[in-house]
Every structure is written in structure tokens, then in C-alpha cells.
Amino acid sequence: MTIRKILATIALILSPAAAYCEGNTDALRQRADELHAAGKNDSAVIIAGQAMEAARRSRDTVAMIGVNSSMGVYLRTMGKIDEAMKHYDEAMKMCTTESFKRNADEDARQEAAALYLNMATLHIDMQHKEQAAYYARLTAEWARRCTDKAFKAQVLTQDGLIFLMCGDNKGAAALLAEGYQYSLELEQHAPALNAAAYMVAVADRMGDANAEALWRKRSTELAAKTDDTMVLVAYYQILCSIEVNHKRWHNALKLFDKILSTKGVESMPFIVYDCYNNMHEAWAALGEWRKAYETQGKAVALKDSLFEADKAESLRQLDAKYKAAEKELELARSESELARTRMYLAVTALVVLACAVLIYTYVQRQRRKAREREAEFARLKADTDRRLTRRYIDGLESERSRLAKELHDGVCNDLYTVELYLGGTDNGAHDDGAGRAEKLKGMINECREQARRISHELMPPEFNYADIRLVLEDYLMRTAEASGIDISFDATPDGADWSRLADTTALELYRITQEAVNNAVKHSGATAIEVTLDDSDGTLTLAITDNGTYAGAQGAGIGRRTMKQRAEAAGGRLTTETTAGKTTVRLTVNHG
Q1: Contact, 5 vs 24, CB < 8 A?
Q2: Which helix (H) or strand (E) holds 533?
Q3: How many angstroms separate the CA atoms of 475 and 457, rounded?
Q4: 460-590 falls under which CATH superfamily?
Q5: Long-range contact pairs involving 218-222 (C-beta distance under 8 Å, separation at least 24)
Q6: At 415, is the pLDDT very low, low, confident or very high (cuts 50, 70, 90)?
Q7: Mean pLDDT of all residues in the chain?
């Protein structure tokens, strides 16, 4: 897991309500609305609070406006007007900013319209008609900016009712007509009937008989297409109100009968009670005292029943609130436990993160050190290769210088002597023909032997056909013949298998022997050279001992450096010892 992923996980653990993410704000609001519709306003407020927290975490201004507006409705229903006003004010602060007005999308426009409609409703309930009319105008302004026709139909119709209650009949008529038209376009008969019924009331207030007749006709047609109990009852109640106001008692009684015969009205006891209560007044106005008495009796009986039902409902609500309080307490305990668990997980995650960072840093440091060591090793290897190459080149140059000197001092001088002898410029006495030929033959043989010796020194021995003992024995025998020096050679133990020695090691031993013997022959004035080769217990020892002296011999010094380099190449150690007039060059190699 990368560091970045670990930090994101910690942020999620520390969140106070991680279960409610931004996407669940709408679900929480819907749940709160359902609880409010069921009369469980306490629970609705709790769920709305959770929705508010989710909206704040996601910084969703539109959602916060909507939740505050809904909270105002719930608290107003509970009679907590001051608390409701606080939520409305909070929503108003966000809704009235220039940024919100300029950037408002469809959702924002709908939330603003709903907020202002709730504010207008609150003020009309409190009989603050001027404030109600002000917010009703803002509602209409925002609703008309929306594109959702269903939303516009609903809000404009409700807003028209606010205008009607404020006494602005023309404003009410305009909004109700708009709501009616949008409902018809969507073929939503119930909302259209609702708007048309209020238009009947507006036309009645304005004294426009033609308009009233038109809207009554439209309402009758829509009522035949609607089976929504609440809408039908509201429609009949509006017509009843008009008939009662005009004291058209027979018409009113017919409408009361329609209400009582509407399917589903039996589940609305307060509406039934209102019908009987108004019917007894209508019968009394007509002088039908017996029917007035009967309907009044039904109203009283229903009222007593409702009173008992109210008491039972109150007890039920108290019980529900008690149980809800217990659940909330349990929820609080669970949240406390969850908070502790989250904190534990957060601390654990931080420890793991710290360990991961330390391990990552340690690994990176080790890798960096390894790279530095590799780079240092590469530099050392390159330096070593350069030094070895330099030594090799120096050795080649030294060998070339020595060979050049050999050719110049030996073969070239002898050939020059032959040239002088043949030219007759020799200062010595001339011999006869046979003597001269014999002498020339000797000179030429000596030149040939010198050239042959130099070529043997240049050409490596063939170890495929002979081992190191035989090669050294042959070389020392030829050198003794050419130099006239007594050279002895001894290899121990007898019967040793010298072919097991690696060719590279054997070649270095051969070259070291060549160099040491040549130094003794040319620079020391030795008369006897002893060479021994011993292989005991995995240790190979080569010793070259002569009885000469090397004072001031520059060539011998160069040769010793070359021998030392060859000894190192063979994996051995070279020493030079001088005792009692003798010089010994000793090479020791461990070859396993």
C-alpha cells in the first residue's frame, strides 16, 4: 500500500459519521420526510441532523439549504417556532448570496423556491400577511425560473393559495392559473383539480360570475377523472365554503353529503366531524330542527370519540418518545464505542504508516549505499585495470628496450665485425683463405646462436608437448652452451606430475627463470648458476642462485620489477636474498 492510500484510509476512519457519505444526503432527507409525514417529528429532526452533517462534510450548499428548510418545517409542526426560524435564517444566508444567485442550477432554484414557500406559510400561520406576501413573491420568482413543470405546478398552486389568504386575489389568480396549466400539460388531474377549485374561490371573491362558472365546469370535469380522496374532499370543502358564505344552505347540504360519501373519508374523522357540525347549522338555518338535532348529536358523539382517541394518541406518542429516547441513548453509546474503535484503528494505522515510512527510508538508504558501493567498486576496478594495463605496457616497453639492447650490443656488433673482416679493414694479421673462412664461420655461428637465443626468449614454450620441468631443462641447457657458464637444474620430488601445473602459472615461472638467468649472465659476472624447482604440500618453490655481483646494474633492477609483476600475476611472492657472495631469487606459489 502506498503512503498516499494509507493517509486516505486514516481520514475515513477519523470521520465522525463515515457511514453517511455525500451520496446518502438525499436518502437521509427522504427518510426524515417520511418520518414527518408519519407524525414522528422527533425522529425526523434527528435524521435531518445527520443529513445536515453529511451535507456539511461534502460542502453541498444546495443540500444544506434544503435540510435547513425541512428542519424549519419539522420544528414548526412541533410548535418550536424560534428554533424553526434559526434554521430558516441559516438557509436564507446561503440563499441570498450573489454567488448562489449567479450559479444556481435547477436543484438550487427548487430549494430556494421551497424555502421561500415555507417562510410564507410560517408567516401566514402567524397572521403576518405582509411578510407572507413578500416571501410568496420570492417563491413565485424562483419557481418560474425552474424547468421542472411538475414542481412548478405544485409550488405555484400552493403559492397562489398564500396570495389568496393574504387578500391578493389577482396575484392568486395568476399563480393558480399557471399551476393549473402546467398540471394539464402533464395530465396530472389531481393537482389540476386543486388549482381549479381555488380558482373558483378567487372568482367568487372577485365577483366574476363568468369566471366562477368556467372554473366550476372545469373542476367538475376534473373531479370525474380523479380518485384522490384528499383532493376531492378539499374541492368539495371549497365549494361548501362558498355556498355557506352565500347562505345557499341546500347547495351546501348536498356538498356535505358528497364529502361524507367520498370513498376513504371515514379515515378522516376530523373532516367528518366538521361536516356534521356545519350540517346542523345549515338545517337549523332552514328550520329543520329535528335534522339539526340529529346531525348535532352525531357531531357531539364524534367529538367525544375524537377526544378519547386524542388521549390514546397522546399516550401512544409519549410511549413512542420514551422508546425513541432509549434508542437514541443506545445509539449514542454505540457511537461512543464506534468513536473509540475508530480512534484505535487510527492510531494503529498511524503506527503502521510510521513503520512503513521507516522501512521505506531504510530500504532506500540501503539501496543507495549499495549503489554507492557498486560505483566505488567499479571505480576501483577501473583504476586497477588501468594500473595493470600501465604495468603491462611498462613491462612490454622494458622488454622491448632489453631486446633492442641485446640486438644492438650482440648481434649488430658481431655482424659489424664480420663486415669489417670481410672488407679487409681488420687491424690484425690476415690469415690464409682457409683460416679466414673458418673464422668467419665461427663469427656467423655466434651471431646465429645469439639470434636463436633471443627468439627463444620471445617465443613462449609449447606446454602442450612438454611440462615446465622439461621446458626449463631445455632452456637452461641451451643457455649454458651459449654463455659458457656452469648452469645446474634440479626438480623435486622425483616422479612429480608437473603437467598438472596450469599453463598460465607455468609460463610465468618460465619467464621469471629467463629474466633471473639473463640478469645473472649479463649483469653479475657469475660463473655458476643453480636452479631448483620444488613442489611440496601444494606449495611450488622456484629458486635461481648465482655467485655474481649486481652493483650498479640498471638492467637487473628493471628485470626485478618485471619478475615481481609476473609473480603477482601467478598469485605468488618473489623475494631476493644476497648472502656470502651469492644472490638467490625465490618464487613461492600456493597452487593447491
Answers
A1: no
A2: strand 528-536
A3: 9
A4: Histidine kinase-like ATPase, C-terminal domain (3.30.565.10)
A5: 219/193, 222/189, 222/192, 222/193, 222/196
A6: confident
A7: 81
φ/ψ (deg, to 5) at 422: -70, -30
For residue 592, the one-letter residue type is G
- C-alpha 494/C-alpha 510 separation (Å) is 20
Sorted by sequence, the CB contacts under 8 Å of residue 352 that are 6+ apart come out as 6
Residue 350: band (very low, low, confident or very high) from pLDDT cuts 50, 70, 90: confident
- Picking from 372, 402, 361, the residue whose alpha carbon sits closest to that of residue 521 is 402
Q: Write the single-letter amino acid at 412.
A: C
Mean pLDDT for 360-364 is 88
CB 592 within 8 A of CB 436: no
Write the single-letter amino acid at 534. D
Give per-residue pLDDT as tens, 569-592: 888 999 999 888 899 999 999 876
What are the helix and strand counts (H, E) for the chain? 21, 5
pLDDT tens by residue, 457-495:
665 666 666 788 888 888 888 888 878 899 999 999 888
Cα distance between residue 586 and residue 575, in whole Å: 5
Cα 19-25-26 angle, rounded to 5 deg: 135
Q: Can you give the pLDDT at residue 5?
A: 43
User: For the residues 425-439, what does the mean pLDDT come to?
Assistant: 62
What one-character DSSP code corresponds to residue 97? S
The grid coordinates of residue 138 equal: 420570492
Report the distance separating Cα 232 and Cα 229, nearest Å: 5
Contact (Cβ atoms closer than 8 angstroms) between residue 68 and residue 45: no
- Contact between 152 and 182 under an 8 Å Cβ cutoff? The reply is yes
Q: How far apart are CA 298 and CA 232, in angstroms?
A: 23
Place of cell 679493414: 425
In angstroms, the CA 4 to CA 264 distance is 61
Strands (E), 389-517: 486-492
Residues 135, 119: contact at Cβ < 8 Å? yes
Residue 589: beta bridge partners? 540, 572
- Omega before residue 269 within 30° of 0, cis: no
Write the burial class of residue 537 (CB in 10 Å: 0-12 exposed, 13-18 middle, 19+ buried).
exposed
- What whole-number distance in Å separates Cα of residue 324 and Cα of residue 55? 24
Rounded CA separation 195/189 (Å): 10
Q: Are 276 and 296 in contact (CB under 8 A)?
A: yes
Tell me the one-letter amino acid at 537.
D
Domain limits, the chain: 460-590
The 3-class secondary structure across 262-275, one letter per residue, is CCCHHHCHHHHHHH
Q: What is the rounded end-to-end Cα distance, in angstroms, of the chain? A: 54
Ramachandran bin of 248, using left for φ above 0, alpha for ψ from -120 to 50, beta for the remaining angles: beta
Instruction: Pull the grid cell for residue 9.
Output: 484510509
Q: How many other C-beta atoms lie within 10 A of the C-beta of residue 127?
A: 8
Please, which residues have CB within 8 angstroms of residue 566's CB and are 6 or more apart in sequence?
508, 511, 512, 515
Q: Which three cell numbers stand for residue 545?
A: 642462485
Cα–Cα distance for residue pair 487/527, rounded to 1 Å? 9
